[in-house]
Structures are given as structure tokens and as C-alpha cells.
Amino acid sequence: MTRRLRALARLGPVFACLLLAACGVAENMGLVDAEDPSAPPGIPYGVDIEGSMPDAVRSYLLAASDAAQATDRPPSSALVLRRRAEDDLDKLRRALRAQGYYEGDVSFEIVRPEPDEAAGSAAGEIARDVENMLEGPPTRIVYRFDMGPRFTFADRRVEMTGDPHGFKPPRLADLGLKAGEPAVAEQVLNAERALVRAAQQEGFAFAEIGDRSIVVDYDADVMNVDLTLALGERVTFGVPEIAGIDGIDEDYVRGRIPFEAGDQYDVRKIEEARTRLLDSELFSTIKISPAKTADEDGRLPVAFEMTQRKHRTIGAGLGYLSGEGPNARLFWEHRNFLGGGERLRIEAGGSASSQEAKANFRKRDFFMPDLALIADGSIKNEDTDAFSSRSIGAGLGVERTFNNHVSGTLGVAYRYAEIKENGKDDDVFGLISVPATLALDYSDNLLDPSEGWRLDLRAAPFWDTLGLDTRFLKGRATATWYYRLANDPRLVFATRGSVGSITGVSRDQIPADERFYAGGGGSVRGIPYQLAGPLDDGEPLGGRSVLEGSVELRWRAFTSVELVSFLDAGSVFGSSVPATEGDLEMGTGVGFRYVTPVGPFRFDIAVPIDKRKGIDDSFQFYVSIGQAF
Q1: What stretch of H or E contains 212?
Q2: Alpha-carbon gap, residue 277 to 36, rounded angstroms
Q3: 604 and 460 assigned to the same domain
Q4: What pLDDT sits at residue 26?
Q5: CA distances in angstroms from 152 to 98, 175, 251, listed in the order given
Q6: 39 and 102 inside one domain
Q7: What is the C-alpha to C-alpha distance for residues 357 and 371, in angstroms, rounded to an integer?
Q8: Cα separations (Å) of 295 from 52, 270, 342, 621?
Q9: What residues form DSSP beta bridges with 59?
Q10: pLDDT for res 581
């Protein structure tokens, strides 16, 4: 039987073509349904690429192969598999040319495993499954590439039509079309887009690429590129046309649009307008439509059509921290409180040891863009191992957004507090302060960062209006850094460091609730709340300085599940500078994260590394929303 099949095979390509045609007819008639997902499992296969080429080109060719993208849909027969490979050839030749290989070619071979006598046995099936798991399916489509020379850019020119009004286009070399570099087609398209954008930034709203001439010189292995940039009319902005803002102050909305009628057209200002309007948190969608023609004065109307989101939000949260017990919070927020994008947030929450009610008001664009007026007030009660405190306070300040990554605040605050510690009589303080902050955020995600870094700087001088001798300066710096070790599955290394200091008075003169404390869920996990530092008969004294550090390894095991291991260390010190000879308390543990749209749900369990008898518990656990840092 085998000899007969081999004899038939020698009939050559004519027989093969007839056979393939017959297969195609059968499929068209419905006799064979090769791609029917309900059909029985087909032939598992993989795709290999052979040839000398850069890794980036290899990846590009694999992405261009339909067969490579369809390995999760095994074909029902060897003939359908061959057809997939043949259908790829023209696509792969075009992909070669797109990468600068204008004389390259490709062929393929389907490599199938030799018959195995043990294939039908259970042991053979298991062995084959293990081999498939480790090395991939034994059936392979092997594409063999004869690359030929890689053509490079040679002569490159750009010509403009229309009055340039002094506009000079960027050099093509600066746009990726460098002489001697590979003649990749995508680079030409990118250069064209960059030329159009450069013109649109200088008032030419209708700029476009006109005639192009791309000549491939097969004798010299080079590509010559001639582009034409049709500038069109130079225009200015017309009066912005705004719709969909019922209930919102129109002046506030117009203030978020960074151009006025008569300003020179610049496409970047339209993009900035979209960002600023979305940042107002008042709109869910924004449609911006520049007119197709300018008016008789050369002004281009731009229409803004907004869809408003709900202005009010109510929410709640629950958590649990060992040493503090369960905690809860409830908040209500209005993002258009007075009709001009003002945000009012009222929040109440706490645990068995701490309860607080607070309100925060924020008005954007206070006298100038990117400057906000902020006001807040709070009532708080705390009863911890270190102290008990009742306080009421309020503050007023401004917040400046310098760019997408940097912001800062400056204000004035007053707080009245009655504090009792270690069985002493109540101390009364009337603290006025001038708090200032600077926040830098270059991470890739607010709620679940995996790359980048953050730096938070805070400082405030304090004066006690009820005690003439109490004046001090309190400051703290906290830095976090995130590095992605692997993408699939995601593996992230995260680290955090924090240092703080209070100068000007002794520890006992500082209100107990303004001192530094360490230990607990937001500090050193595995060490009880506030108990990393000097103690008096088991009670925390707090300190004039603090030093903390943490490292985490976060492994995204599944789409929504992340496993974490961590090590924390930290302590507070009686001096205003962290004492290098002092001991740092350390805790370590593991955690679980379930990823949700509002941030990861976090569960951590930690143990102290050097357990202190009568102070530290055998373990601590923490439940909350959001990463630890």
C-alpha cells in the first residue's frame, strides 16, 4: 500500500493541484468544513521561520503570517494545513518588501513526525503530550527565507506646495528617513504623518501629503523617496462651539479650552482641550469636530459636543488590619457643586481606635489654569496604645499642577487638640501650620503601577498658639520605584523607602499625635500598629524621626490574580535624625491580590522576623483595597 502511494506521488504537481482543487470544491459544496469550530479536533501545528535576519524582522514576519496567528485553530486535514501555508506566501513576500528586502523570497515545507509504533499505546500518548507541552506540536510549517540584500534609503526630498508663511518642515533624517538606514516602508508612512502634523502645528489645518515618488534601485540596492507636502490655507481658530453642558457654567468650560478665536491653529491645542475637559471629571465623552473649511476671515470653527457623566457619587469601603481591627468608610462626592466644576467630598470612617469625619472642597482654575483652591475641615478622635486625642481642624490653600507628572500644594491650617498620653493630664494644643507638598508621579498606573517611580515630599512648620515654647518643623520624603521583570506572566519588583524628621523641640514637647510612629499595615507589616520603635512599659513613645523600607515581588499568576511576597523594615527614633545604631524591626510575608476595576483587593499575612516576647504577635494580617504602596 505504501509503495502505491509513493507511485501516485511521483505523478508530480499536476496531481497535487488536482487534489487541492478537489478539496476546495468539496469545501464549497459543504462536503468538507475545514474551519468549522464545531468540527472534531484537527492537526496541532507550530510555525518556524528559517533564514538569517534581525530579531525584529523575524517577529514582524511571524506577525504577518496568518498561519502563525491561527495555531489555536488546528486544521481538519493536511490539505487545509498546506493551503494555509500557501496562502501566506504572498503576504510574507509583501512583508519582506515592507522591511526593505526587495529581492527576497520565501518557500515553505510542512514537516510531520515519523510514524511511531507506540503512538497508539497509552504510554505513547502520554509521551507525545509531554513532548508537545515542552517542545510544541511535532507538525511544523517551516518558512524558509532567502533574504537577499536589505535596501537602504538614499536620496530623500520633500517639496511643499502653497504659501509656507515662513514654515520650514523638519528634516527627513530627523523623522526616521536616514541615508544608509534600512528602507522600511513604515518609516516612510511615519515620516509622512510627522510632516503633516508639523504643518498642522503651524496653522495649516488642511495639510496633507500630495504626490509621492518612491523609486527602488535594484542595481544599487537603495530606495529614493520624494514627498510632496500640500500645505493648504493657513488658518486661525474660530469661536469654539460648545454643546452638551446643561447645568455647567459655560465660562468654566471655555476656560478649560486652551485657545480663543483668532489664535493660530495648532492641532496640539485641540488635543490639550480634550485632556483638560476630561480631567474636569464632568464628561464621559467629548467629540471635537473642526470644520472642513475656514470662513471668509480665515477662521476655522471647532465644535465641542460633550456627554456628561453623573456628577454625584456615593461609595463605601471595608478593611481589616491586625492591631487596629476592622475599618470602614463612607463618602459622598459632588463634582459640580456650584455649577463651575467645584468638587465637594464628605467622608466619614474609622476603626475601633480611630474615627474621623472630614470634608474637602476643591475649585479648579482658580484665577488661572492649573491652579486650584482647596479647603478642608475635619473632626477626629483617636484612642491608641500611644495616646488618646480629640481634635478639630481646618485648612485653606492652593494646588498647582505643573504638568501631567508634577503637582504641589501650599496652604495654612489650624488644629485644636486635646491629647492624653501615659495616664498624664490632658495637654491642649492650638497648632497653626503652613503645610507644603510636592508630588512627582512617573509611574504607569495610579492604582496598580508596574513601571516607573514616585516621589512625595511634605514639610510644615508648626506653632502652638496656646504654648509659647512649642515651635517645630516636620518633614517627610517617601519614594517608590517599580520595575517590570517580565511581561507574560507579569512579574514586578517594587520597593519603597521613607524618611522623616522633626526638629526644633524635644520629643516630649511634640504633641503625641504629631510624632512619628511605625508598625502596622501601612508601615512595617508583621509588627503591631505603632510598636516599631521605643517603648515605655510596652507603650509606644513615638519619635522625632522615622525610617522605613519595603520590597515586594508581585507575580500576576492569572488574569485577575496576583501573588506577592514582601519584606518590610522600619522604626522610629528619639533623635531628629534616624540613628544608624538603632534596631530596625522587620516583618515578612506573602499576599494575594484580586484585580478589580477600582484597584486590587489586597490580603496580606506577615510574621515578625525577630519576635519580641510579649510585644509581637505570631502573625498579622491585613485586608484592604489597593497595593501596599
Answers
A1: strand 208-217
A2: 48
A3: yes
A4: 36
A5: 12, 15, 54
A6: yes
A7: 26
A8: 57, 19, 36, 67
A9: none
A10: 64
Q: What share of the chain is helix, strand, coil (3-state, %, to 5)?
A: 20, 40, 40
First to last CA, the chain: 70
For residues 337 and 378, membership in a common domain is answered with yes
3-state SS of 428-457 is EEEEEECCEEEEEECCCCCCCCCCEEEEEE
Strands 343-351 and 325-334: antiparallel
344 close to 360: Cβ distance less than 8 angstroms? yes
The whole-number mean pLDDT for each consecutive block of 10 residues of the chain, a chain of 629 residues, reads: 35 32 35 43 88 93 94 91 95 95 95 62 50 63 95 94 93 92 94 96 95 92 95 94 94 93 95 94 95 93 95 91 86 94 95 94 91 97 91 97 95 96 82 97 92 97 88 97 92 97 93 94 92 89 95 93 96 88 88 90 94 92 90
Q: Compute how many other C-beta atoms are within 10 angstroms of the C-beta atom of residue 581.
A: 5
Helix (H) or strand (E) holding 407: strand 406-420
Return d(Cα 361, Cα 375) in angstroms, integer: 5
The whole-number pLDDT of residue 41 equals 62
C-alpha cell recorded at residue 280 = 474636569
Which residues are CB-neighbours of 93 under 8 A, at least 6 positions away?
104, 105, 106
Three-state secondary structure along 29-71?
A: CCCCCCCCCCCCCCCCCEEEEECCCCHHHHHHHHHHCHHHHCC
The strand order across the sheet containing 241-243 reads 241-243, 302-308, 283-290
Q: Exposed, middle or buried: residue 221 (CB in 10 Å: 0-12, 13-18, 19+)? A: middle
- CB contact set of 546 (below 8 Å; sequence gap of 6+): 476, 498, 499, 500, 516, 517, 518, 570, 571, 572, 573, 578
Which three three-digit cell numbers place residue 397? 490653600
| Locus of grid cell 491642649 | 428
Residues 253 and 298 in one domain: yes
Cα–Cα dist 206/298, whole Å: 12
On whether the CB atoms of residues 475 and 458 are closer than 8 A, the answer is yes
DSSP 8-state assignment for residue 298: S
pTM score above 0.85: no
Same domain assignment for residues 196 and 92: no
* SS3 state at 358: strand
pLDDT of the residue at 86: 95
Please say whether the beta carbons of 477 and 499 come within 8 A: yes
How far, in Å, CA of 454 to CA of 444, rounded? 10
CATH of the domain at 273: 3.10.20.310
5 domain residue, yes or no = no
- Domain range for residue 246? 236-308
